[in-house]
Write a structure and sequence with these properties.
Radius of gyration: 13 Å
Number of strands: 4
Helix content: 10-25%
Strand content: 15-25%
Order of helices and strands: EEEEH
Shape: globular
Strand order of the largest sheet: 2-1-3-4
Structural class: alpha+beta
Distance between the termini: 27 Å
Length: 80
């Protein structure tokens, strides 16, 4: 029996508008609007040099990083 007020969600996409190099609108039609969260998720390129120059998000608990926005959206779409 489901709890009152609790909804089930698909995989959650988290992105930082400042650091990720992408915005929520880039994932329109790929990830449901309700499954996109914005804000810091602790993987700033300043502290994680391997992410410098890449577009990245946290999707379903894992960091997904690619060399371009287009490649990142495609990678997330393949996981969805």
């Amino acid at each position: 029996m489901p709890l009152l007020g609790v909804t089930t969600m698909g995989a959650c996409l988290k992105l930082c508008k400042k650091c990720s190099g992408v915005s929520p609108k880039d994932f329109k039609g790929v990830v449901a609007k309700g499954d996109i969260r914005t804000g810091c998720f602790g993987h700033c390129a300043k502290r994680h040099k391997e992410l410098e120059g890449k577009a990245y998000v946290k999707y379903d608990g894992a960091i997904v990083a690619r060399g371009s926005k287009k490649k990142l959206v495609k990678a997330v779409a393949e996981r969805a």
